[in-house]
Specification:
138 residues; 3 strands
């Protein structure tokens, strides 16, 4: 698109000549608007399709609400069986609580020096067995 200046303004588009300044500017504006509209239509993202899988149909329901009876039953069960009232008990903490003297007797396990931090580094692993046995017999 080229606007040719001179005595009479003309617009030259694809080899065709359009005389008159107003007409040339109007045609230029219309061509630009049409090109912008076409580019906007081409650059639109494709529409997302709504699909429903078996998982969505069975497990992702947003309209489900709990009934009052179900909430009442849940509250009664949590009062009757308090699952989270006490801290979790592991095999290790059970043995520590069972033997209050300070040493833990688990077969095949090296005794821990500090009962509060049983998994810290222990120098008994690097000592010769004879030294460890001498210390335990004293």
């Amino acid at each position: 698109h080229r606007l040719i200046s001179g005595t009479a303004a003309v617009l030259k588009i694809d080899g065709r000549v359009f005389p008159g300044e107003r007409r040339a500017l109007l045609l230029q504006k219309l061509y630009d608007e049409a090109a912008d509209e076409i580019m906007r239509e081409r650059n639109e993202p494709p529409p997302t399709e709504e699909y429903c899988t078996e998982y969505d149909g069975n497990y992702n329901r947003t309209e489900i609400t709990k009934s009052e009876k179900e909430e009442e039953t849940t509250r009664e069960l949590s009062e009757k069986y308090p699952l989270y009232a006490s801290p979790v008990t592991s095999y290790w903490s059970f043995k520590v609580d069972q033997n209050q003297r300070g040493s833990i007797c688990i077969p095949g396990l090296t005794t821990a020096v500090d009962l509060k931090n049983p998994f810290k580094r222990y120098s008994g692993f690097t000592k010769p067995i004879s030294e460890v046995l001498d210390e335990s017999s004293q």
